[in-house]
Amino acid sequence: MPPAPAFAPTNPPAVAPLRPGGARPRFSVMIPACDPDEKFCASLDSVLRQAPGPERMQIAVVDDASSAVDVQRLIRSVDPQGRVEFFGGDRRRGLSGNWNRAIEVARGELVHLLHQDDSVHPGFYDRLERGFTRCPQIGMAFCRSRIIDDSGRLTKKTSRQRWLPGVLADWLPVIAERQRVQTPAAIVPRSTYETIGGYRTDLCHALDWEMWVRIAAHYAVWYEPRPLATYRRHSANETSRLVARGAVWPDMARAIQINARTLPDSIRAATIAASVRWHASSAIRTAERQLAVGDTAAAADTLRSIPELLEAAHGVPTQGLPHRRIAVLRARILSGSPFRRAA
To answer: For a tag on the chain, would you pick the N or C end, based on fewer CB atoms within 10 A?
Structure first.
């Protein structure tokens, strides 16, 4: 068993239960927003096209103090009838802060956080609700996702976890190795958040991955193999901004250390070793892509993060890392030579 991580994470913020007595819809579809563009309208429309009445589904936009966009005007352009609730922001809370605020104002039994530039497909809510109906004890349900670029072109689909809908077996070590769930594809009972807490404020990128690991450590998880959610990956989204700032890999290292505290002794060492190997190799691939487009500074930042990722293993052997590729990449950066992919 590896020693306790050196990084001392804070506790996840508490989520208070709702006061008893009020009417509760089955779903709360919460759309955190911050200076959204026209993609926000498509996201909201994808919900409204399949939404039941307000007695069954709350739909709300939770704004993080947008300053460049009139978010309410965008909402009215899609929803002139006023079906959608709006929660304005008096100050910027950031990603985790706004997600947690969305959970706080959610009244439904099942909470869906939908990014402002992502969308869901017809049948998303019906199909995922079946998991909660058949297995009320589950802590979340999610479906396979489509990944698209800024132009809406399909680039990939997330890996299939099983062929038929149902509870995932041995899911904890699988999700603890690396991220496999896109946030718009997941629905979480509000009671789950009330039990295990909200999204961590000490993570800026891996906060959703850490949440899925935390849920899997406490609950069974339902999977729907149909790709009923779409995640948009583009140069202006939060992930791309964090990559450009060099913040992704240190955040991943912190998340691995937090996950190590969550895992039982029986699987901790093997799972953390696998996670470190995967993320270190992913960082190497990222550095290769950055060098290929001439972004030497970003590649150097990425390579500098690899030792921090390796430290997250805390003495657990991580054989199989491509150390020769790391050495070749560092040499290319130092020499300023044209990039050639390492063997």
So the answer is: C
Identify whether residues 149 and 185 lie together within a single domain: yes
**Residue that finishes a domain, picked among 239, 258, 284:** 239
Give the per-residue pLDDT at 242.
Answer: 56
* CA gap 332, 307 in Å, rounded: 18
Q: Where are the alpha helices (DSSP H) in the chain?
A: 39-48, 71-78, 94-105, 124-134, 171-177, 190-196, 207-218, 238-244, 248-262, 265-292, 296-304, 306-311, 323-335
Identity of the amino acid at 94: G
Give the whole-angstrom CA distance, residue 35 versus residue 70. Answer: 8
Q: Supply φ then ψ for residue 342, to 5 degrees.
A: -70, 145
Residue 130 lies in a domain: yes
* Tokens 């190590």, located at residue: 260
- What band does 5 get if pLDDT is binned at 50, 70 and 90? very low
For residue 331, what pLDDT is reported? 77
Assess contact for 236 and 39: CB atoms under 8 A. no
Q: Closest Cα to residue 251, out of 297, 209, 197?
A: 209
